[in-house]
Specification:
The complex is a heterodimer of chains A (about 290) and B (about 230). With about 290 residues, chain A is an all-alpha fold. In chain A, about 70% of the residues lie in helices and about 5% in strands. The chains are: A mainly alpha (about 290), B alpha/beta (about 230). Chains A and B meet through helix 7 and helix 8 of A and helix 2 and helix 3 of B.
Chain lengths: ~290, ~230
């Protein structure tokens, strides 16, 4: 029972990581908080639900198929942010992306109503039995998918030229530009990566969680908690924070009502802000 | 090679450099010296494209640099070791060096890194180490190595001896001389006036945002005004 709960928590944590890592990366490089990040996840959920209902495309394929659409949307939002002069960006981008968030979520509500929706896969009820441990197949596939994406992402950031440039810009943009790195290009790339990760998370989470137009609010808050847990701008911190939150939420379910699980995130958040506001890796290592 | 004419530059509405005229010929070592707050770093920053240029022009190999983005200026062949080293401390030594060659292609990057490792064997030894764990002197060497990675025609060094032990300073000055002999033009900014001027072909003295004197390196050191103001010998 305990192992099953921890495992479930780790699985959810992997998907949280996809969302939070994008948020922290965008913050690290562009110094903005992307308030519409959760709505991109929500859009991913809706898009994959529709593709499944209309064309029976599994959400795992939609996650890849939908990328051109999401990258275009990301580029559009980036253009809006890019219009704000650098000096005023930190605060104004917060308001701008919050506005974008409202536009996205209310548009979805207008089109699809506020009903809860989900993807019911043919194997939704089947479980993988490993000794005493039982995990639903949708959970197994989603977590495997997110682990692959995380590994790819990690490789991109730590081992490639682009990744090196992203880390350099996050650490010191002025010095990075004296080395010939185009800050704007790197910012745009970073934003695109973040949007891409959020939309993938949305697609693969749709068989597990219910989608409704304002579900993005939950995701952004949780991602924000994770980012603060791990230290603003720290990628390693975001991974660790995501797993911690996933397991923590999962462990309190047997003791409280299911609806109380979101409370855990906030308590953790407040405790960290009170006693370790720099987060686990904060102030020490960036990105 | 580098030519600055009637430059007036500053931050937004505040002007910090007035009527700067300066040139660096190919193959020279030129130093800009002056006290704290004279505008030395601001002058470097305006060459690199970080300051607002109000008037005048900065030309590199006959091309105007005014209002270019910093990253474009580097790709023209200017590389800078900025004040305070500014290495990426949470990246490895090798990552730092590779970032210096951001605009170069594969095979050339290997060539450059071999060149830098030959020049500074300590960097080869420490290549996998986080740069933040290096000593101050090693960090300065890394910063110079990183600046050399882009295969610069003009290397700018902003206070390379700041806060370092005499031994490291000697090494850095030896290296600067060596690089110059290899054909790299050097623009050196220093507070250590004697040492910088001795090494340089020519020098400029900057005070409160204006160039007050220029001349041959060693000649400047014999100038009475210079001796009186900076060397405290009169």
């Amino acid at each position: 029972m305990l192992i099953e709960l921890i495992l479930n928590g780790l699985i959810i944590g992997c998907i949280y990581a996809l969302i939070a890592v994008g948020l922290t990366l965008i913050f690290g490089v562009m110094r903005i908080i992307n308030m519409c990040h959760g709505d991109l996840v929500m859009l991913g959920m809706y898009a994959s639900i529709i593709l499944y209902e209309k064309y029976s495309i599994l959400p795992y394929f939609s996650a890849i198929l939908l990328q051109p659409f999401f990258l275009l949307l990301g580029a559009l939002i980036y253009k809006l942010i890019d219009h704000i002069p650098l000096k005023q960006r930190e605060m104004n981008s917060l308001i701008l992306t919050l506005g974008v968030s409202f536009v996205i979520s209310t548009s979805v509500m207008l089109i699809f109503s506020a009903d809860y929706r989900t993807v019911t896969l043919p194997f939704s009820q089947e479980v993988l039995q490993l000794g005493v441990i039982r995990i639903g197949y949708p959970y197994v596939i989603s977590s495997a998918f997110s682990i692959v994406i995380i590994v790819l992402f990690y490789y991109l950031i730590m081992r490639t030229k682009i990744g090196r440039a992203i880390r350099a810009v996050a650490s010191d943009p002025e010095t990075a530009s004296t080395l010939g790195i185009d800050i704007k290009k790197i910012s745009f790339l970073t934003y695109s990566i973040g949007v891409s990760l959020a939309s993938i998370a949305g697609c693969i989470i749709s068989p597990i969680l219910y989608a409704y137009p304002f579900v993005g609010g939950i995701f952004i808050i949780k991602a924000f908690v994770i980012v603060v847990l791990g230290g603003m701008g720290s990628i390693h911190g975001a991974f660790l924070g995501a797993l911690l939150l996933g397991v923590g939420e999962s462990l309190i379910i047997p003791y409280f009502e299911h609806s109380m699980k979101d409370l855990f995130a906030f308590i953790l958040f407040i405790l960290f802000l009170l006693f370790k506001p720099t987060g686990i890796f904060g102030g020490k290592s960036r990105v | 090679m580098l030519e600055i004419k009637n430059l007036e530059a500053g931050y937004k509405s505040i002007v910090v450099l007035w009527d700067i005229n300066l040139h660096v010929n190919k193959g020279e070592i030129v130093s800009i010296v002056g006290p704290n707050g004279a505008g030395k770093t601001s002058l470097i920053k305006s060459i690199l494209g970080f300051l607002d240029i109000k008037r005048g022009e900065i030309k590199f190999e006959k091309n105007l640099l005014n209002n270019l983005n910093p990253n474009k200026i580097v790709s023209r062949g200017i590389s800078c070791v900025v004040e305070g080293r500014k290495i990426f401390s949470d990246l490895t030594v090798e990552d730092n060096l590779l970032l210096g060659a951001y605009n170069l292609k594969g095979a050339e990057v290997r060539n450059r890194i071999d060149f830098v490792f030959e020049l500074f064997p300590i960097l080869k030894e420490r290549r996998k180490q986080m740069s933040g764990t290096l000593s101050g002197g090693e960090q300065q060497i890394l910063a110079i190595g990183r600046a050399l990675m882009s295969k610069p025609k003009l290397l700018i060094l902003d206070e390379p001896s700041l806060g370092l032990s005499p031994k490291i300073v000697s090494l850095i000055y030896r290296t600067v001389k060596q690089l110059n002999e290899l054909g790299i033009t050097i623009l050196l900014v220093e507070q250590q006036i004697t040492r910088a001027l001795k090494l340089s072909h020519r020098g400029y003295i900057l005070e409160t945002g204006r160039i007050v004197k220029e001349g041959q390196g060693i000649e400047l050191l014999k100038d009475e005004q210079v001796i009186g103001t900076y060397l405290g010998l009169v």
